[in-house]
Automatic annotation (TrEMBL):
Residues 1-82 form the GST N-terminal domain. InterPro entries: Glutathione-S-Trfase_C-like, Glutathione-S-Trfase_C_sf, Glutathione_S-Trfase, Glutathione_S-Trfase_N, GST_C, Thioredoxin-like_sf. This is Glutathione S-transferase. Pfam families: GST_C, GST_N. Residues 209-235 have a biased composition (Basic and acidic residues). Belongs to the GST superfamily. Residues 89-215 form the GST C-terminal domain. It comes from the Eukaryota. It comes from Penicillium malachiteum. Coiled coil: none annotated. Residues 201-235 are annotated as: Disordered. Gene3D superfamilies: 1.20.1050.10, Glutaredoxin (3.40.30.10).
Amino acid sequence: MSDITLYSWPTPNGVKASITLEELNLAYKTVPINISTNIQKEEWFLKINPNGRIPAITDGSQRVFESGSIMLYLADKYDTDRKISYAPGTPEYIEQLSWLMFQMGGLGPMQGQANHFRVYASVRSDYAIKRYIDETKRLYSVLESRLQGSAFLAGEKYTIADIANYTWVRSAPGSLEIDLAEFPAVKKWVEEIGKRGAVQKGLTIPDSGRTEAERNEGSKASRARIDAMTNSDKH
Ligand SMILES: N[C@@H](CCC(=O)N[C@@H](CS)C(=O)NCC(=O)O)C(=O)O
């Protein structure tokens, strides 16, 4: 029996949790945490995630924070049919863990910094924009090599490792103007995963009141704002 509450917002990290919950067909309540209003820094929320970020879940008295640990927790506890995960102790589980950590320690932080400097920053740093977009693309080329020879990241089965990387990669054209045609196997994998009903539903949880097209328009306007600034790098 589960008693799950999801605290989230539809960002690349947030939807990892909602997609996983939807894939596992679990019942859960959702508490929207609009991160632009900083609720995630309030005292009550820090008791659920001391890092003051989304997503987080509670399952009864158990709190779980960090999107990667939420996915592992849900898969280890509730994916008894192994629909979206491999069983602990198997070589495939370690491969799944490796690609999950690749996203948590590499792709997420690097693409997050690329988003910051390209879309949200209050100064323009061409150095930082180039550094983080180049690194994001380098990580995509690692995914490309893997997906050239494997249907999914951990092997022949779609798993939480795919979900974790997918939510970030799918957002790159809209936020960073990265053309996925440069990475054909990654593009095909994104298109395949995007057809799944649980993925389509999870991407909309919680409702932010803005469509994806509106969010992408917002990113475009923010990039134009940065482009209009003078580069602040000192040489
Ligand atoms: N490593 C964390 C990162 C979480 C994270 O950075 N969440 C962002 C949204 S994608 C957030 O809450 N930002 C608001 C803030 O930093 O205050 C995870 O994977 O859960």
